[in-house]
Amino acid sequence: MNTIKKILTAFLACALLCGCHSGKKTSGIIRIGIEKDYRPFSYSDGNKYVGYDVDIAKEIASRLGYKVEFVTKTADQLLKDLDNKKIDMLANQVEPDRETDKEVRYLYSTMYKCDYGVIVTNKGENNIKLFQDIRNRKTSGVKGTYWEYLDHFNGGLMTPVENSEEALNLVSNKKVVASVTDLMTYNDYKRRHPQSDVKIALMTSLIYDFSFLMRLDQTSLNNKVSRIIMKMDRDGTMSKISKKYFEEDISKNKR
User: Fold this and answer.
1) How confident is the model over 17-54, as pLDDT tens digits?
2) Whether the predicted model's global pTM rises above the 0.90 cut
3) Residues 200 and 230 in one domain
4) Distance between terminal CA atoms of the chain?
5) 170: alpha, beta or left, given left = phi > 0 and alpha = psi -120 to 50?
6) I want to staple 183 with a disulfide (CB 3.0 to 4.6 A). Which of 12, 92, 116, 190 is the partner?
7) Which residues form the Solute-binding protein family 3/N-terminal domain (predicted)?
């Protein structure tokens, strides 16, 4: 009997050890990184987080059989947390074409939202006709987002801020010339601040797809998340959540 107990003890210890280092989730919690104040995608409402990204993430976690724990930091800090395995997944305007270098660092889920990029300027600014017109001009934006990439790619001198609200406030107050952001964020800002002195100077001709971001060692999780997103699309859940926050369905690319 003692021999059997020793064998079982050794087997369980080995199983636990292997489980901890297999790269697979063994706990009942999935940690998802979101920006703390990125309306209308993720923001706090009293003592809870709400927004399009938040609702999609909650539904995915539920269908995976996990409880969700949201980790809220700035976009660039969340990327570091993902790299360091402090979070399991990132939901923060991640566009798959962002990685233009040869070394692919992340896995991208099936897209769960799409949006246009816009350059927002003060109403009195009339010299921004092309994206390249922000070159060597003061801009504002959030580090770690796709819009930071577009800003730097076109030569903007970006002042980093914590959220899009601050970025657009700087434009409205003429502290910077422009801010590169997404159409849905701009529309939400104008709805809440109708007297703000901002306008859309330019909108991209392309509509961008956005995905959840995971590490390269999370193939199994990425496949499960992608399948759930496709099921949510087919059963109407994606459209329902989208229309809760927007006047249209941003879960589908209409190009």
Assistant:
1) 333 333 445 569 999 999 888 899 999 888 899 999 99
2) no
3) no
4) 68
5) alpha
6) 116
7) 29-249
